[in-house]
């Protein structure tokens, strides 16, 4: 494929034919030639090719706001065949593609800031064949997570992967980022529920992977290679999801604890004797913010350094007595200072809001987010080391901790002081992040536990992956996407 624009080549890592590139003020705009626009329109229909500025902003970014969205166009295909045709045209014309789902990501994986064509999968939103024997259902990539959860409930079953963005995230995006959420301790990640995939490769070919099988050891499982690949290897267009038994009578308990080692002791005690569906944590500053801004009540009056939120099923009628006995034991050991347990569905929902509403609450402070993980046993020493580093480097920064401590995933949020601009704040946090990621490397952890790499974590990938691993990733990328049309510049540079 002949190179067309050196300026674009150096910024995005690939060339664009049949386009006019205007560079301005540190950014640029790609204007597609009329004949290319006509070809795109003929594939998806003129009303499904969006060229207006509002659509470019809406579809050209995810929940991150670091880069200014600047796609060349937005296409909304209505079929798998149209997705294939778009990818084939992109190869012929040298046009980069950014696959787009619900755009709820936090690492810039769905950002189109370099004149790419956004391929938004919103219209592939049909729930297809359901098999009650296999407990499986076929979903288009654009199916909203909450829509799948409701469908499962209507069948008397359950889709357990759950997170705050379930009302807007899409199944294809969940698979592309291997989304986790609040129930991983019991149910695992998205990949644990995917039994089949249809994927359009970087050359426009359609792969049908695994066909819903539970057991399939016939060679490499390319399905799992696609899960978590962030749209760099293929565009996920259809997913076959496994469902499970619906949980029975869930109860929620919030415990106040004096320190992080006490949380881990409490976790170990409960997990040894009960099957938990969730074990989350948040700090006192996080609770203060939520209570002040979400019209919620504190779980109990006395402040504690940290809080643990536990959820468990009541299937036999004895689980509540067992949980209360464990609570009393933890009180006696000094691991827990106080606690409260839900007595109704409404109370359980409000207790969950103390944890789930944190991200929305602190958004007004433009937080610098880190999504980190280590093995569960190392969480206390890891948090202590990170907090000491941030406090020493920037004593005026406020730190908000919360996360899925039951699976070793913690979210470090540094709140922006009013006196700093976003640019200055990001620069300072970027410096401290290097120290944080050194601690991640020392603990053999991950710089991205569940949010993916995208563009924001790309510079820090070597803290979690070896040079050999990254080079093998590049080789895999070249195999599935030889011309580099799919989500260029994400995860790593070729």
TrEMBL record:
Coiled coil: none
Essential cofactor(s): FAD
Record-linked Pfam families: FAD-oxidase_C, FAD_binding_4
Domain (FAD-binding PCMH-type): residue spans on this chain: 67-246
Record-given protein name: FAD-binding oxidoreductase
Keywords from the UniProt entry: FAD, Flavoprotein, Oxidoreductase
Family: Belongs to the FAD-binding oxidoreductase/transferase type 4 family.
């Amino acid at each position: 494929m002949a190179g067309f624009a050196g300026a674009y080549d150096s910024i995005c890592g690939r060339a664009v034919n049949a386009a006019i590139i205007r560079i301005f003020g540190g950014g640029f705009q790609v204007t597609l030639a009329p004949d290319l626009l006509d070809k795109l329109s003929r594939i998806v229909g003129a009303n499904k090719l969006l060229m207006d500025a509002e659509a470019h902003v809406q579809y050209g970014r995810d929940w991150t706001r670091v880069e200014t969205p600047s796609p060349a166009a937005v296409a909304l295909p209505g079929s798998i065949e149209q997705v294939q045709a778009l990818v084939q045209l992109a190869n012929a014309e040298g046009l980069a593609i950014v696959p787009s789902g619900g755009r709820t990501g936090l690492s810039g994986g769905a950002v189109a800031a370099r004149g790419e064509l956004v391929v938004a999968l919103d219209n592939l939103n049909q729930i297809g064949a359901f098999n009650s024997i296999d407990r499986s259902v076929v979903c288009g990539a654009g199916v909203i997570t909450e829509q799948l959860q409701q469908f499962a409930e209507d069948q008397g079953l359950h889709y357990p992967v759950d997170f705050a963005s379930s009302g807007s995230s899409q199944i294809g995006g969940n698979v592309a980022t291997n989304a986790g959420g609040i129930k991983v301790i019991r149910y695992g990640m998205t990949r644990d529920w995917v039994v089949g995939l249809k994927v359009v490769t970087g050359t426009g070919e359609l792969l049908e992977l695994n066909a819903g099988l539970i057991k399939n050891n016939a060679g490499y499982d390319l399905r799992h290679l696609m899960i978590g690949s962030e749209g760099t290897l293929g565009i996920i267009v259809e997913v076959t999801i496994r469902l499970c038994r619906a949980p029975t009578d869930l109860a929620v308990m919030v415990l106040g604890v004096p320190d992080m080692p006490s949380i881990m002791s409490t976790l170990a005690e409960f997990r040894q004797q009960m099957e938990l569906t969730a074990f989350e944590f948040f700090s006192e500053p996080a609770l203060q913010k939520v209570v002040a801004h979400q019209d919620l009540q504190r779980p109990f009056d006395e402040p504690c350094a940290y809080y643990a939120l536990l959820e468990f099923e009541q299937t036999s009628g004895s689980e509540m007595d067992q949980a209360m006995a464990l609570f009393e034991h933890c009180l006696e050991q000094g691991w827990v200072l106080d606690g409260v347990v839900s007595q109704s569905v409404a109370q359980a929902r409000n207790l969950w809001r103390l944890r789930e509403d944190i991200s929305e609450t602190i958004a007004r402070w433009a937080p610098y987010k880190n999504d980190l993980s280590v093995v569960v046993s190392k969480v206390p020493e890891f948090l202590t080391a990170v907090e000491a580093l941030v406090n020493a480097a920037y004593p005026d920064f406020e730190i908000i901790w919360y996360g899925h401590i039951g699976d070793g995933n913690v979210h470090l949020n540094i709140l922006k002081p009013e006196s700093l601009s976003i640019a200055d704040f990001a620069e300072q946090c970027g410096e401290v992040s290097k120290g944080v990621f050194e601690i991640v490397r020392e603990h053999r952890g991950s710089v991205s536990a569940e949010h993916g790499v995208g563009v924001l974590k790309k510079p820090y990938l070597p803290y979690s992956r070896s040079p050999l691993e990254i080079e093998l990733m590049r080789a895999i990328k070249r195999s599935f996407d030889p011309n580099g049309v799919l989500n260029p510049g994400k995860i790593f540079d070729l």
